[in-house]
Structure formats: structure tokens, C-alpha cells
Design goal:
The complex is a heterodimer of chains A (464) and B (257).
Chain A: H1 4-27, H2 37-63, H3 67-96, H4 104-114, E1 124-130, E2 136-138, H5 140-154, E3 163-169, H6 182-193, H7 196-211, H8 217-244, H9 246-255, H10 270-275, H11 285-298, H12 302-307, H13 311-319, H14 340-350, H15 352-361, H16 372-384, H17 402-415, H18 417-422, H19 432-460
Parallel strand pairs in A: 1-3
Antiparallel strand pairs in A: 2-3
Chain B: H1 6-13, E1 24-26, E2 39-42, E3 46-50, H2 65-69, E4 70-74, E5 81-83, E6 88-98, E7 103-109, H3 111-114, E8 118-119, E9 125-126, E10 131-140, E11 146-148, E12 153-161, H4 189-194, E13 200-203, E14 207-210, H5 211-223, H6 227-242, H7 252-256
The chains are: A mainly alpha (464), B alpha+beta (257).
Chain lengths: 464, 257
């Protein structure tokens, strides 16, 4: 076998090659495709970290001679490789998510809206493509721990502050309306940054211990973990509604086909909806929708929502009538040999805290329904006539805003597409291909309007 | 035809978009964009760059003509796009335009742009009631590369009164509402020629196709056969088709359908 020093040179070269294969695409990205500023920061970070890793390996090899130190270096190389392997999974998906393969206008608009929250004025999001159908938030604490372990070892740069990573299904990279689900992932960032998980776990555990006999302590721990996940999901839903209004809930109802659970009167058959309820990391869909409906009412959307003639709006309105007891089903928690009643009671006791935390986290954020009365009908009229709805002004001469555009356009998309198609020669509202074509046009006009109002607002309020 | 003045243009812009006489130009980012008889338009952020095609000519009859012929690129505001000397690219105006039913429009290269030997339009006429961002056929006819910054003023829109008295009942045309440059979607030459009664044409790499005569003789021959023989021939033709013996857009497909 070759001397240990020579083996270490080979190990270091192998790692350096591996690191370069990850950072290489970042270095070659310029020219053809554009990326968001946040992604550019991420690529620059990866490049700098790769350079620092290579320099570190060179330095360490030159300065290490004793066998004991060489063995230590071998362990460091192995550890670095594991951390780089972790980073590997994010780089290509981030490069794939160039501005033509993202709902770029929506992402810009949502980021601007997010930064209206005083606590998060500096935050930005890196978007990556995901091969899973779910949207996902990369847990920043986990990501930073791995990335910063490399930085610490090789004296490289730290992961840029105030950046988070969101994955969107690659198949949804150009749609507008379904991507109204993105604010939920932004909610995960807020939940993590404010350490709300720890807070809620403590509260859940105390509450559970007052109601159930802790015969098996590990069971309590599992249930607390599960319910804390549910709380996080519900917080993120409520956050999304607070940020963008009913278009989030409509996209949610659309994606999960929740209208299938409605009977002919437009009410939920609670027995039928329980059938699918299983022990899972996500709370029941109808519970999620009910909590969103309650948030929508608080944010001033209720009358508008009730007036929308669409199965998605009906799904939301009907969900608000569900009661806590509708979510206690025998199958739930059966894996944990738990009586579901006290568990659910504890959960519902804590649930109002979600709203309190949400109010605190989003203090200073304007209501999502603020621009509705001034602009929604005008936006619908523009879309009906095939016009980008960015030329509208309110009495103060202000253009519309991203949230009002999204909600108004969503209402148009679910309720008024035939009106637009009646103005178009040879367009058949009952034809799937025609409808898809014009729905795509409505998405493009809305996206263009979002870009336009962001420009117009920047021009009017340069300091904002 | 009368060229509209700034005052009338602004009055038309003030009408609701739903009115047939309304004019929409959005976003209007600069109050100085109005001249006495025109409105300045800016360059948008999306481009379609002609690529070296995978076959030795532009085959307009191919179903994937647009995706194989153009590369879609995005240069966000602040970034630039390099247009090499003697090259062309499709761009679009940043502004979305909705024309009134009684006005036509013309887009002209801004003189400052034209003097750097860049042309933005070879099909400058805008029909009444058109709506969309205007696709620009940008050509750099100079001997050096030119940097195109999206957002830069690039054209002037002139509006002209027409004698049209009534708005059309419906919007027509294949280019309704584009917000990015759109690749052409011309009818295949074969169909355009059939429309004027020409049913023979020369196919590149293939030779003359006498479609009308072929159809006639094919049907005559098939009609003379028994059902069983007809079915056998169809099966044979489909076999040949399945193994790629007929080019993609040959009329044989219509006969087999």
C-alpha cells in the first residue's frame, strides 16, 4: 500500500474533484439564462466555499506530516465529503430554476409582499426545482448547520444571512395560480426563525399531560412531535392567507380536489371526509381549510368569498361550518394506542395560540383585502377584454398591488373565463384545449401586470 | 387618415379598458414619453433568438417550428442582451397596447436608435382593436455588436384615425394578447397553396408532390377493391408509416386517418 501521505493526496484530489463538479455549474451559469439575485448570491457562496475547500486541502497537505495528523486529516476529508454531498442536492435544482423556469413575476411580487413584514425586511428566497410534487421549504437550521460545518473547517464564507430556500415542483415552474401555494413555504421560514416549534411543543406537552395518563412516556413524545408538525402546517397556512388572501386557499382546494367531498347542497359530508383521515404528518385537509376560512374572515375576505361562484370558494365557505368534533375520528392515533378524544382536545386547546403567534409575527403587515374594493372589478373588466390590468389607478393615483391582482385574477379564472372567451372568435368555453389556452393567457396578463405594478410602485416610492 | 395629437391620445387613455374606443398603453413609466404626435415605447425583457436550425432550411410546415427555431431568453431590467453585428432577434415592447376599434397604429424605430444602425420593425402596422405587447423584429445592421438594455426607449407609436365606424363583434387573429415576443405560426405552404387551387408543390429533399392527383387516384383505386383488400392495404401502409417510411407531414397521413 502507498504511504499514508500519498493516500491522503489521492483522497484530497478526489474530494477537490467532487467539490469542483458541484461548483462548476455555478461558475459556468453566466450568459444564457438569468437568475434571481438571491440565487446569484447562493451561486457565489458555493463558488467561494469550493475555492476555500480546495485551498484548505492544499494548505493542510503541505503542513501535515505526522501519521496521527494525517489520520485526523483523513477524517476531516470524509466529513467534508458528507457535507458537500448534502449541498450537492441543491445546486443543480437552483441552476435549473432560472427566471424562465420560475413564475418569476409571482416570486418577485411575493418576495416584495413578504418584506413588508417589519421583522423580515431583509429576507429573500432562493427557489429550486423539486422532483417531488409537493412544495417544500428547506429547513434553514439544518441547511446552515451542514453548510457552516464546511465553512468552519475550511475557514470559508458563511451562508449569506436572511436567505432561505424554497422548492417548487418543476412541473409547476411556469404556472401562476397554483403557485399561490408558495406563501405557505415562506411561513415555514417564519416559523423556524421565530423558534415557534420549541414553544408549541412545550405547550402541547403540558396540555397533554393534564388530560391523559402518561403510561408510556415515549408515546407522549411522539404525539407531541406529530401535533407540533400539525401546528406548524396550520401556522403556515394561516400565514399564507394573511400574506396573499383567498387565492392561497383556492389553490389549496384546487390542488387537493377538496370539492370532491362536498355533497349536492355544497356541504361537507363529515363522515365521508373522515374516511381518509389517517395518522399522518399533515393535519386533515378539511381542518386546514377550516382554519384558513377563519383567517380569511378575520382579514375581511368573507363577503367577497361568499359571492364567488366557484367550487373552490364553496369548499372554503363550507369548511368554516365544520366543528372541532368533526375531526375526531377513531382511526386517528390508533397506531399509538391512544384515545383520540383527549389528544384532539389538547390540540384544539392550543390551536388559538397559532393566531396569536401569527399576529405577532406579521405585526405591521397591511391586510391582504385592502385593495380589493378599489380594483377587483376593474381588474376583472380588463381581463375580460384581453387587457393587462396594470393601468388602473385608485383615487390617490396609486396603481393596484400584487395581492389584489392575484386574488382578482384568481376570481376571474375560476368564475369568469367564459366571459373572456365570448369576446374571442372561434373560442369554445366548453373545449378543454381552448380553455387551457385562454387560462394561460390570463395567467400571462396577470404576471405582466404584477411586473408592471412593481415597476410603477418603485417609480412612485423609490425609498420603499 | 389623421395622426392623433398628444391631447387626444391622453383622452383615449383615460377611458375604461372595456370601452371599444379606449386606448391602453401600460405601464406608462415616464410622463415625458408623449411627443406631440407619438408615444415612446420601451424594450421588453424577453427575446427569441434565431438558432442554427437542425435541418438546412426553416421548415415552416414542421409542427415544432417555433421551439426548434428560436431560443427563448430573458434579460431582467438592469441586465443587457448582446445583439451581434448583422444578427436579428425577436423582442417585444415593455408596454402592452390595446388599440381602439377606430384607430390604426404604426411603430417606428426611434431616430436615436436608428442612427446606431439598429432597426426594430419590418411589419410596423398595428390593426384596430389589436391588443398585446408589440413583437419587434430587431436587426443590428451595423458592423459591431450592440447592447440592448430592456427598458430603454426603442420605438415610437403613431396613432391614426380610420374610417371604421363600428367595433367588430369578436376579437380575431392568432396573435391576441401576447406579452412576450411570439414566434410566427404560419400555415404550412401546402395549405396556403391549396387555398388558391394549387395542389402540386415541391418538397425539400423529396421532390414534387402532386397531392390532388394522388388523392384522386388513391380513392379510385381503393374503391375498386374489396373491403378485405382495402383493409390489408391500409394495414400495410400503417406498417410502413410506423417504421418511419413516410415523412412526418406527408399527405398520406390524411388518407390513412
Amino acid at each position: 500500500m502507498a504511504p499514508l501521505g500519498d493516500q491522503l493526496v489521492q483522497d484530497a484530489v478526489s474530494l477537490a474533484e467532487f467539490v469542483r463538479s458541484i461548483s462548476g455549474p455555478c461558475e459556468r451559469r453566466g450568459g444564457t439564462f438569468a437568475h434571481r439575485t438571491s440565487s446569484e448570491k447562493f451561486f457565489a457562496y458555493i463558488e467561494a466555499l469550493a475555492d476555500a475547500t480546495q485551498s484548505y486541502l492544499s494548505r493542510r497537505l503541505q503542513s501535515t506530516a505526522k501519521p496521527r495528523d494525517l489520520l485526523q486529516l483523513r477524517r476531516e476529508i470524509a466529513s467534508l465529503r458528507i457535507s458537500w454531498r448534502f449541498l450537492h442536492q441543491f445546486v443543480k435544482p437552483a441552476i435549473d430554476a432560472d427566471t424562465l423556469n420560475l413564475p418569476d413575476a409571482l416570486v418577485q411580487g411575493l418576495s416584495v409582499r413578504f418584506r413588508e413584514i417589519p421583522l423580515f425586511r431583509e429576507t429573500d428566497f432562493i427557489f429550486i426545482h423539486s422532483d417531488r410534487f409537493n412544495y417544500l421549504n428547506v429547513t434553514l437550521a439544518v441547511f446552515k448547520r451542514r453548510a457552516d460545518s464546511i465553512s468552519k473547517c475550511v475557514s470559508g464564507p458563511e451562508f449569506p444571512p436572511n436567505l432561505s430556500i424554497i422548492g417548487i415542483p418543476y412541473s409547476q415552474s411556469s404556472s401562476l395560480f397554483l403557485n399561490c401555494l408558495i406563501p405557505h413555504e415562506m411561513g415555514h421560514y417564519v416559523f423556524g426563525e421565530l423558534s415557534l416549534g420549541i414553544k408549541f411543543k412545550g405547550e402541547l406537552e403540558s396540555e397533554l399531560l393534564t388530560r391523559i395518563d402518561p403510561g408510556n412516556p415515549s408515546n407522549i413524545g411522539d404525539i407531541v412531535e406529530l401535533l407540533a408538525q400539525w401546528i406548524e402546517e396550520l401556522f403556515c397556512d394561516a400565514f399564507a392567507v394573511r400574506l396573499v388572501g383567498f387565492c392561497f386557499s383556492a389553490a389549496f382546494a384546487e390542488l387537493f380536489d377538496l370539492a370532491r367531498l362536498l355533497d349536492e347542497r355544497g356541504k361537507y359530508d363529515t363522515q365521508k371526509s373522515r374516511d381518509g383521515a389517517e395518522f399522518a404528518e399533515y393535519p386533515p385537509d378539511l381542518l386546514r381549510l377550516r382554519q384558513q376560512a377563519m383567517r380569511l374572515e378575520r382579514d375581511g375576505w368573507w363577503n367577497e368569498l361568499k359571492a364567488i361562484d366557484s367550487q373552490y370558494a364553496t369548499s372554503i365557505v363550507a369548511a368554516k361550518e365544520l366543528e372541532d368534533k368533526d375531526f375526531v375520528c377513531p382511526a386517528l392515533f390508533s397506531e399509538h394506542s391512544m384515545d383520540p378524544v383527549p389528544v384532539i382536545q389538547s390540540f384544539f386547546k392550543i390551536l388559538p395560540r397559532v393566531e396569536i403567534e401569527l399576529e405577532q409575527a406579521t405585526a405591521g403587515l397591511t391586510s391582504s383585502s385592502r385593495g380589493w374594493s378599489a380594483f377587483s372589478d376593474g381588474i376583472a373588466s380588463c381581463l375580460e377584454h384581453g387587457v393587462v390590468p396594470s393601468s388602473l389607478r385608485d383615487e390617490a393615483g396609486e396603481p393596484s398591488d400584487v395581492v389584489t391582482l392575484l386574488n382578482s385574477a384568481y376570481r376571474f379564472y375560476v368564475q369568469e373565463m367564459p366571459k373572456l372567451m365570448l369576446h374571442i372568435a372561434k373560442a369554445d368555453p366548453a373545449s378543454i384545449s381552448d380553455r387551457m389556452h385562454w387560462a394561460r393567457r390570463v395567467e400571462l396578463w396577470t404576471s405582466k401586470a404584477i411586473e408592471d405594478v412593481l415597476l410603477l410602485r418603485r417609480k412612485r416610492h423609490p425609498a420603499a | 387618415m389623421t395622426v392623433l395629437s398628444k391631447k387626444i391620445i391622453i383622452a383615449r387613455l383615460g377611458l375604461p379598458a372595456s370601452e371599444a374606443k379606449s386606448l391602453v398603453i401600460t405601464p406608462l413609466l415616464d410622463e415625458d414619453c408623449f411627443d406631440e404626435d407619438s408615444v415612446d415605447l420601451r424594450l421588453g425583457t424577453h427575446f427569441l433568438l434565431p438558432q442554427i436550425p437542425p435541418q438546412p432550411y426553416f421548415d415552416q410546415s414542421g409542427s415544432r417550428f417555433a421551439s426548434q427555431t428560436y431560443l427563448h431568453l430573458h434579460a431582467p431590467l438592469g441586465d443587457y442582451f448582446v445583439l451581434p453585428a448583422h444578427q436579428t432577434v425577436l423582442g417585444a415592447t415593455l408596454e402592452f397596447i390595446k388599440m381602439p376599434f377606430d384607430l390604426s397604429g404604426e411603430i417606428l424605430t426611434k431616430s436615436s436608435v436608428a442612427r446606431s444602425f439598429m432597426l426594430i420593425e419590418t411589419a410596423p402596422w398595428i390593426h384596430p382593436f389589436y391588443r398585446g405587447c408589440l413583437t419587434l423584429e430587431i436587426a443590428n445592421v451595423s458592423n459591431t455588436s450592440i447592447l440592448l438594455y430592456p427598458g430603454m426607449p426603442i420605438g415610437q407609436l403613431i396613432l391614426l384615425k380610420t374610417a371604421i365606424r363600428r367595433p367588430p363583434e369578436k376579437l380575431a387573429g392568432s396573435y391576441v394578447g401576447p406579452v412576450y415576443p411570439e414566434a410566427p405560426s404560419p400555415a404550412p405552404p401546402r395549405e396556403q397553396l391549396l387555398g388558391i387551387g394549387i395542389d402540386s408543390y415541391r418538397k425539400p429533399g423529396h421532390g414534387w408532390v402532386h397531392e390532388g392527383a394522388m388523392r384522386k387516384e388513391f380513392h379510385e383505386t381503393m374503391n375498386a377493391l374489396t373491403d378485405e383488400h382495402r383493409e390489408s392495404i391500409r394495414r400495410l401502409l400503417k406498417l410502413l408509416d410506423r417504421h418511419g417510411c413516410f415523412p412526418g407531414d406527408t399527405p398520406i397521413h390524411k388518407l390513412l386517418a
